[in-house]
Write a structure and sequence with these properties.
9 helices; Quinone Oxidoreductase, Chain A, domain 1; homodimer; Rossmann fold
């Protein structure tokens, strides 16, 4: 029940990017340890999350959440352990995950906590990945928006990514035929060997459109889209009657201001009575535990595999988002602090 | 129970348009009256339907139905009276509506009949409009895909059209605030005075985008889209969280080959967890009577108003579809034969 005497290392957003945030938009600072008021507790973060959506959080354009204010700690999910508490519901030693920011220590009154991490037999870092937002996103976006049925062909863009790989494996567990779209031979093999896709297609290779057509001889029933852009345009040409396109991310578009153009989807959606629907995981907050209990069960049994890429130290943070967009990571990127 | 002795006047599709079918793509011919085999009956068509979707039926590109073969009678809905029958379920005098084609007489074995028209107190032509495909489309597309809730703002493009005007009025009956997008002052007034929209916005006028924004101060919950194109691009900028965009038609795009470009919708759908979904009325065939019984009730009570434009004689047929796309009609266009 004592505040550690060291300082708090924080990563601040110091300028606002137009597009993808780069290292230059952040600054690492040392600040004094905060005092705890009644009803608060202190978390020592062990892992900080790095994810594509953070691009949207720092941009000024209207988005699904208010932009991170300049000069404040970068918003992020983090997982850690309660080290001091003046809050009745949180005790020292509790493992928690929440919107704790890119910093070593975070004060919370509970409102920033997403959940207590109860899977003590599994690594804490998983609460930021396959047992966190990534896994929960894949689970609800696929099942609630994608609505896959046994025998459906499910195509996943960024099929090797932390969300995509979970979506592909859950679709497979639901009896679907799964097709990964990914970049390069290493990720192709990972998709087939680790994540169990029936086929992997390389969007960087010549003849991508033809390879995709060959991979989907019966058309596409569910398209789990993390990219938008030309990859999606190619997939949309193959949708079946009543197909469901889940818009979960737009990783291939680096900037939405001005609004980029592409082939219009309206006629395709009309001719197939198909739908395209955006997914925000926040809408499923009340059902997190339902998803995580299933995901944890699959992880324990080995039927849901994951990759993590652990960067060491706060110094890795400023460039970490840009690195995601450079496509350099294999698996869910987290920072160990 | 005798075949009339006159000839059958038919409109054939004689060449295939790339885009909107014009008068030159059709030919009017006189053919011999067909003989009736057992299990068949003869319908004297009284009204032929003209609708925007017929563009898709004659084009070679893959669509939701096979293209009309060259040299055959133009596919269309028509309403008429059984004048001779060797079919146990159809008697002389029965009023029927179905896919009977642009011709004076049609032989059917029942498979081309959509329904017997039982609303004897209402004009037969309505079975091609507000009590036919148009009304049924508006009803199911709005209620099943649009899912309006009381208080929602519902925007309808081609708000004065035969589908749009029905959709707008049904939304109003469901407790929504309704906004019509239409072209020119005459249709604007029609939207407000006849079809009860709260606001009408002129897409042809300067300042359309601003007028639309003013018309939707609380954003757009349901967009019933019959146009696609720049009109839709303007509406999409105002969608609310969990908005539903119903793709019912694409009247503003004259040609989908090559695939036209426009602003990408993915990010808007994602940020708002909104959906865009195509609607094909054929998917609701088993529920036609449910819709028509409600629509007829509203028509009788005066709470669902409609406009018809009746062209006289088969000579009007060849140019009739092109005329729709020139925007010259007020109300559901039918041909009296």
């Amino acid at each position: 029940m004592s505040i550690p005497s060291e300082t708090n290392t924080q990563v601040l957003l110091t300028s606002r990017p137009n597009g993808i945030p780069q290292a230059e938009h952040f600054q690492i600072v040392e600040t004094a340890m905060p005092a705890l008021e009644s009803g608060q507790f202190l978390v020592r973060n062990e892992f900080l999350s790095v994810e594509p959506a953070m691009r949207g959080w720092v941009n000024a354009a209207a988005n699904y959440s208010d932009p991170v204010p300049l000069g404040s700690v970068m918003r992020s999910f983090a997982a850690g352990v309660v080290v001091a508490s003046r809050h009745p519901a949180y005790a020292e030693g509790d493992r928690v995950m929440g919107m704790l920011g890119w910093q070593t220590y975070a004060v919370s009154d509970g409102s920033t906590i997403r959940r207590k991490v109860l899977e003590h037999d599994l690594p804490l870092s998983l609460s930021l990945g396959v047992l966190g937002i990534n896994g929960v996103t894949a689970y609800f976006a696929l099942t609630e928006v994608g609505e896959p049925r046994p025998g459906d062909t499910v195509v996943v863009s960024t099929g090797a990514g932390s969300v995509g790989s979970a979506a592909g494996q859950i679709a497979k567990l639901m009896g679907c035929r799964t097709v990964a779209i990914t970049g390069g031979p290493v990720k192709m093999q990972m998709c087939r060997d680790e994540f169990g896709y029936d086929v992997a297609v390389d969007y960087k290779a010549a003849g991508f459109a033809e390879a995709l057509a060959l991979a989907c001889p019966d058309g596409v029933d569910v398209y789990y889209d993390n990219t938008s852009g030309p990859i999606s345009d190619a997939v949309v040409r193959h949708i079946n009657k009543r197909a469901r396109i889940v818009i979960c991310g737009t990783a291939s578009i680096s900037n939405w201001e001005p609004w980029p153009s592409g082939p219009r989807v309206e006629r395709h959606l009309l001719n197939k009575a198909a739908r395209m629907q955006g997914f925000l995981v926040w809408d499923y907050e009340h059902r997190y535990e339902e998803a995580i209990s299933k995901l944890a069960c699959w992880v324990r049994s080995g039927s849901l595999r994951y990759r993590e890429e652990i960067l060491d130290g706060m110094v890795a943070a400023p460039d970490a988002i840009a690195g995601l967009y450079r496509g350099e990571n294999f698996g869910k990127r987290v920072i160990r602090v």
